[in-house]
Design goal:
Layout lengths: L2 H15 L3 H14 L5 H20 L5 H32 L7 H11 L1 H13 L4 H17 L2 H67 L1
């Protein structure tokens, strides 16, 4: 059994036990994320597997399915939030170490964060296709409420992008100022060099002009 199938089974069992479902799903999702590379692709895989497991559990549960799905989604949302916070802290550490925010891997991390919430919700929607029509309708209701109230993941993503978007703009401005200063210094150095060369050339010419005259006066 691969890790995704194991995760699906654990999510199904969490629904069957039904106690503190939100917390159980959050911890289950977090544990899965901790064991993988923290990329959008892996987050989607975890969310999809957990959602499919929740569907399996909800299909045979006596508990109100709407509550089960709502609590399960909230648990996954809180787990993905932690992933975003981890990315946020990693970016702050890189910035503190003087890492350029224009470096390709930093820009890639910000690009992934920007699309994370859509990918998260999209993974849930994709996983619900394997459930019954009744479960699909109930998931649609849960996700519709989410669109109105928003997710905690989206709020943290927005905060992170706002902070580092400002930093990136500052970095671009600083880079432009540094480039301009370097260009000014280069221009100044060039004119100084040219002036020095000109002085050398003209001194040579002046010496060349004086020498015949000096010889003439000696005669």
């Amino acid at each position: 059994m691969n890790t995704d199938e194991m995760l699906k089974g654990l999510a199904r069992e969490a629904v069957k036990q039904s106690e503190n479902l939100r917390s159980a799903v959050r911890e289950l999702t977090l544990n899965a994320l901790r064991s993988r590379e923290l990329t959008v692709r892996e987050i989607k895989r975890v969310v999809k597997a957990v959602t499919e497991g929740v569907n399996l559990g909800a299909a045979t549960s006596r508990i109100d399915a709407d509550r089960v799905l709502g609590e399960a989604f909230a648990g996954m949302d809180e787990a993905v939030l932690k992933a975003v916070q981890a990315n946020h802290l990693a970016l702050q550490q890189l910035a503190a170490q003087g890492q350029s925010l224009r470096d390709s891997h930093v820009k890639k991390a910000l690009d992934e964060l920007e699309r994370l919430e859509d990918e998260f919700v999209g993974a849930v929607k994709e996983a619900t296709k394997k459930g019954s029509q009744q479960l699909r309708d109930q998931w649609a209701s849960v996700l519709q409420r989410t669109q109105v109230s928003g997710t905690v993941t989206a709020a943290e993503v927005e905060r992170t992008l706002e902070e580092f978007g400002d930093r990136m703009r500052d970095a671009v401005r600083q880079q432009r100022r540094t480039a301009l200063k370097a260009a000014e210094m280069m221009a100044e150095n060039f004119t100084t060099l040219a002036s020095g060369i000109l002085i050398g050339l003209t001194e040579g010419l002046q010496q060349g002009k004086r020498e015949p005259g000096d010889k003439a006066s000696e005669r």
